[in-house]
Amino acid sequence: MRAHVIVLAGPSGAGKSRLAERLGLPVLRLDDFYKQGDDPTLPRITHGANAGLVDWDHTDSWNRADALDAIAELCCSGHTDVPVYDISSSRTTGTQALGLGEGTAFVAEGIFAQDIIEECRERDFLAQAVCVTQHPLLTFVRRLRRDLAERRKPPLVLVRRGWNLMRAQRRIVDAARAVGCRVLTADQAHAELSRRFARGSAE
What we know:
This protein is of the alpha/beta class. The chain has helices at about 15-25, 65-75, 115-120, 135-150, 155-180, 185-195, and strands at about 5-10, 25-30, 80-85, 90-100, 105-110, 125-130, 180-185.
């Protein structure tokens, strides 16, 4: 074992990606492990205004096993190849190399991050797990602004999705806490993680 992973979980739009950038460590983007848009196993929304559309917030919409394989390779060898996913077209557009250099810690962040924490802990990959959170209304606004700017999906779909996620935020945070995440704001997490991993090494 040569490296450990800092897992950043939390609601979409809570500031996980920005926090990961601020920490200055290599970042594994778990959202790049989404399934292809034409994958027949993708789950569908069954009720509400977006019924019939792919449920990209359901854990079955991503390749958890592939993400865990990438984490294992990074922890054990310090490098791996990862997919590059375009959310607006719902497909993988290529791959890129991710390496740790001489570092011994890296960040894995995404909306399904809580789903990998228990296995990472069991395999001794886990350095720390944090759930990034903020006020639900602020999360809604920031998420919608980002998604519209990136043209991730049609505007009305994004508004409806954002409203549903805002209502579900407490449940998302509680689920992350239940698997051992420390629940912190982005600024609190940055201060705590910077102190511990300032030199890119896990304790």
